């Protein structure tokens, strides 16, 4: 990223024109920065709802000749880029212009107001943290659709310093004249992963009961919001749990589905700590490593979570403060348990008047799917065990066939029998491999999704809580109104004033909570849809991988038996 | 007698289609034309076609039970005249207990599973029962055919009675005393030791084989049963869960169909392996036991002969009962030589038979494994192709 910092955006004639312009823009560096982030932010964010921002950029870019203020904006933005320290890599490369032209053309086709309102609501929803950039961006969208770029400039709230977003849109987007929704989606999917995470090299650190496994988390990315293109840090399991805690605290209440981390396993870890070098502990470590990798990949796949500074910190920072409140027996742990208990109780008592049938249906589907997945998971596990048994027995059998062959005096038969022993030996290995593939590809997939479904249910619960809060506020408002009426009747002017104030306050609260509820409903809806898409894709990929491994085993089997057949025929 | 192809009849381990490769003459052909499974016994219909004059008719059938086969076998074993021959091993007892138990358990658990699952499992168990049934019939048939093919044994009177006498032979199972006698005889046998090491080793390892193979095939069958369960829950997963988008449902349906088919193939693999490998080894275990017995008998005869020699020398020395000692010595000598003569031939034949049977079965095993693996492969490939095309 740093390397591109000095690059001026040559292909844009407009930007050259605007060379002198940057100064005033530079002057209000704050704003410019925001605008700039406003421009760039959209492209980086991959979720569907952030498409408008990309369009914004497009419009900005292309409409330069047509509308001056926008041109100004763009110019300043464009020139801002090189001035800043290597934030933008690809923003203003030539092909970009094509994209933008297309986007600009398609801009009107976009459901502008809808996205605008979405953006709006999301802007309100996001708290103080980095998600605010989206707000800027969302507002920018709204403003532009209303065709008032200036207000956009003024509207940008305080600068968001935490993220230096970069447009990561690939210049390889389709170059058709009219950009349709489908194409936009395609582009969005091409936006995918500029971020590769891998977890490797589990090492045991320390000794005895205080030992732990340190995993190397390596990230490769072209996203400018990170300090470098590739970096590695060491993390331990409790760090991952800590990350989850932080993320769920912040986001779960807004209805986001925060991916849950792999489970703690006291038995597994104790074995590792004690230092037993048997295959089961190696398998446990491998299983955990793979699960952690998948967990992180899911977290960064979620566009809003990726923006969270905690995530970035997790990936980048060398030393993380020890997350002590993830320990099972800590004070925080107990607190969590109590909270969970109260939640469970309240869940049973809240009966929501569902205005939108969609949610009820979805919840039911989630429940039934959860059941099915659990059943399937159980069956797959037993399949794995049986295959393992099969491979053990095959090994034993192979040995005894070998012995049989050696005691056979007919040489041809003896040779054939020892060949058979070899074949069976190889089959044993094959079965072993197949079993582990069964497990790692299939069973783990199912286990992951069972946990994720728990997360989905959690966000439904959050929505219910929000609804409850709203209802409670309404009830309180009603009471206050009644109170006011009573005071009016009793004619106590001083208390009346107070009552009126309270009513106003509660009216505000009611509207706010109602808006919250609407917002969380939309968020939940979006999240569930996104989750479903991701799940469909995940399942397809994994199952295909699994089938391919089955295929491979069969091919190997064929090879072995084909090699054996002539030997068997040669028995005289 | 050369290593004729006559004795290659043992290769027929398959179900009823016993292509017994007996000697070309049709003087005596035996087969089991029918079998009936009752509560705790199986009734075999033994059908004979013969041109031998000793039989009253040319073609006739009788109904026999397992105990009668055992009686016949034992009568051969106890007959000293046949000491020099490998007595065809007795067929194993028909054992439907395991299968029956499973069927019972299934009946009890009927309420806990869906109708579909229940009928499927019932079909499977019934097929299993049928397979065991067929196998036991085949074993009995092979025994009879071997006897019929043996140039000396086929002339045995008991055998003819067995084939012809259409009343109940009223053979009773051995009572306790006789069983105990048998046991002691066996102990003495093993104490006496055996001569030819090769046969002994082979026998031991056949023993090994049998045990492990049994486990192995149980496992394979289990694995296929489990994958069946998996498909079933896959199917129910996609039919009852509407949360999956349309394409994903189709996807799952296809995958579950695939698993269904591969499971069937795997079940067949298990059955084939069972047939070709396990049964082969089991049978040769019994045959090698019979060969061992032959060698034992020869060993005994040798010992008797030597003892008789010693007794003769003693008698000559004391000049008492010399004639008696001489006659007994003569007898022992004759016996021993007779046994040795035929034993050698029998053992050579046994080896030939064994090698040929192994060859046939191993080749068939390999071919079947290949066939099934290719079938599996094709299924997987086509399924993957369809799925990839879908996405």
Automatic annotation (TrEMBL), chain B:
Domain PX: 22-169
GO cellular component: cytosol; endosome
Top-level taxon in the UniProt lineage: Eukaryota
This protein's record includes keyword Protein transport: yes
Pfam families, A to Z: PX, Vps5
GO biological process per UniProt: protein transport; retrograde transport, endosome to Golgi
Sample GO molecular function, one term: phosphatidylinositol binding
Keyword Transport: yes
Keyword terms of this UniProt record: Protein transport, Transport
Similarity remark: Belongs to the sorting nexin family.
Function: Involved in several stages of intracellular trafficking.
Protein name per UniProt: Sorting nexin
């Amino acid at each position: 990223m740093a390397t591109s910092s000095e690059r001026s955006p040559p292909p844009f004639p407009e930007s050259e024109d605007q060379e002198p312009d940057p100064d005033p823009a530079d002057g209000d560096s704050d704003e410019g920065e925001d605008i700039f982030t406003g421009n760039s932010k959209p492209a980086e964010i991959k979720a569907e709802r952030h498409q408008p921002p990309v369009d914004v950029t497009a419009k900005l870019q292309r409409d330069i000749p047509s509308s001056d203020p926008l041109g100004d904006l763009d110019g300043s933005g464009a020139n801002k880029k090189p001035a800043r320290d290597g934030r933008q890599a690809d923003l203003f490369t030539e092909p970009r212009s094509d994209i933008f032209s297309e986007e600009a053309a398609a801009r009107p086709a976009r459901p502008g107001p809808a996205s605008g309102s979405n953006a709006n609501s999301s802007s309100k929803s996001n708290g103080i943290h980095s998600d605010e950039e989206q707000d800027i961006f969302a507002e920018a969208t709204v403003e532009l659709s209303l065709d008032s770029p200036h207000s956009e400039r003024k509207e940008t709230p305080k600068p968001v310093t935490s993220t230096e977003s970069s447009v990561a849109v690939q210049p390889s987007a389709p170059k058709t004249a009219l950009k349709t929704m489908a194409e936009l989606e395609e582009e969005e999917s091409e936006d995918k992963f500029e971020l590769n995470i891998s977890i490797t090299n589990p090492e045991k650190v320390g000794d005895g009961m205080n030992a732990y496994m340190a995993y190397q988390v390596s990230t490769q990315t072209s996203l400018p919001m990170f300090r470098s293109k590739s970096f590695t840090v060491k993390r331990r399991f409790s760090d991952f749990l800590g990350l989850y805690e932080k993320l769920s605290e912040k986001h779960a209440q807004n209805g986001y589905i925060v991916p849950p981390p792999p489970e703690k396993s006291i038995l597994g870890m104790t074995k590792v700590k004690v230092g037993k070098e048997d295959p089961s502990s190696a398998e446990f470590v491998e299983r955990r490593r793979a699960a952690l990798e998948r967990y992180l990949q899911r977290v960064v796949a979620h566009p809003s979570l990726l923006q969270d500074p905690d995530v970035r910190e997790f990936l980048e920072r060398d030393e993380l403060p020890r997350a002590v409140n993830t320990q099972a027996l800590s004070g925080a742990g107990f607190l969590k348990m109590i909270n969970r208990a109260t939640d469970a109780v309240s869940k049973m008592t809240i009966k929501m008047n569902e205005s939108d049938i969609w949610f009820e249906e979805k919840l039911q589907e989630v429940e039934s799917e959860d059941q099915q997945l659990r059943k399937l998971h159980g069956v797959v596990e037993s399949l794995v065990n049986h295959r393992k048994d099969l491979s053990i027995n095959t090994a034993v059998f192979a040995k005894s066939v070998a012995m049989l062959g050696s005691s056979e005096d007919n040489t041809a038969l003896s040779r054939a029998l020892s060949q058979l022993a070899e074949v069976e030996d190889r089959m044993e290995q094959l079965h072993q491999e197949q079993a582990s593939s069964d497990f790692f590809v299939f069973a783990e997939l199912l286990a992951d999704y069972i946990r994720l479904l728990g997360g989905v249910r959690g966000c439904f619960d959050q929505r219910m809580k929000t609804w409850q809060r709203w209802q409670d506020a309404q009830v309180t408002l009603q009471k206050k109104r009644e109170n006011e009426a009573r005071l009016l009747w009793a004619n106590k002017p001083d208390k009346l004033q107070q009552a009126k104030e309270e009513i106003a306050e509660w009216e505000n609260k009611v509207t706010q909570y109602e808006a919250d509820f609407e917002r969380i409903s939309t968020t939940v809806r979006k999240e569930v849809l996104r989750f479903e898409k991701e799940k469909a894709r995940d399942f397809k990929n994994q199952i295909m991988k699994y089938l391919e491994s089955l295929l491979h085993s069969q091919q190997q089997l064929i090879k072995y038996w084909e090699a054996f057949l002539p030997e068997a025929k040669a028995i005289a | 007698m050369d290593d004729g192809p006559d004795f290659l009849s043992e290769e027929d381990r398959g179900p009823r289609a016993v292509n017994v490769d007996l000697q070309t003459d049709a003087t005596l052909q035996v087969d089991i034309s029918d079998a009936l499974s009752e509560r705790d016994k199986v009734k075999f219909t033994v059908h004979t076609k013969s041109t031998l004059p000793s039989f009253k008719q040319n073609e006739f059938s009788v109904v026999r039970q397992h105990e009668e086969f055992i009686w016949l076998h034992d009568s051969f074993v106890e007959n000293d005249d046949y000491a020099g021959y490998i007595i065809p091993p007795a067929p194993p007892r028909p054992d439907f207990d395991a299968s029956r138990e499973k069927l019972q358990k299934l009946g009890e658990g009927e309420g806990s599973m869906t109708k579909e699952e229940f009928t499927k499992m019932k079909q499977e168990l019934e097929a299993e029962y049928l397979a065991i049934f067929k196998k036991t019939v085949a074993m009995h048939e092979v025994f009879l055919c071997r006897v019929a093919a043996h140039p000396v044994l086929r002339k045995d009177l008991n055998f003819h009675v067995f084939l012809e006498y259409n009343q109940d032979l009223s053979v009773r199972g051995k009572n306790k005393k006789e069983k105990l006698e048998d046991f002691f005889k066996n102990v003495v046998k093993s104490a006496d030791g055996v001569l030819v090491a090769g046969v002994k080793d082979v026998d031991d390892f056949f023993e090994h084989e049998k045990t492990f193979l049994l486990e192995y095939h149980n496992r394979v069958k289990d694995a296929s049963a489990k994958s069946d369960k998996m498909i079933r829950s896959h199917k129910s997963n996609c039919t009852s869960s509407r949360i999956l988008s349309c394409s994903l449902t189709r996807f799952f349906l296809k995958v579950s169909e695939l698993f269904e088919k591969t499971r069937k193939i795997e079940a067949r693999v298990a059955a084939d392996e069972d047939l070709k490998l396990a049964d082969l080894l089991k049978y040769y275990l019994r045959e090698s036991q019979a060969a061992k017995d032959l060698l034992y008998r020869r060993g005994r005869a040798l010992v008797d002969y030597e003892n008789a020699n010693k007794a003769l020398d003693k008698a000559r020395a004391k000049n008492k009962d010399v004639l008696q000692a001489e006659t007994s010595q003569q007898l022992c000598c004759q016996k021993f030589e007779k046994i040795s003569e035929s034993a050698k031939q029998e053992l050579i034949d046994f080896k030939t038979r064994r090698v040929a049977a192994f060859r046939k079965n191993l080749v068939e095993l390999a071919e079947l494994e290949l066939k099934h693996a290719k079938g599996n492969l094709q299924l997987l490939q086509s399924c993957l192709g369809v799925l990839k095309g879908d996405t």
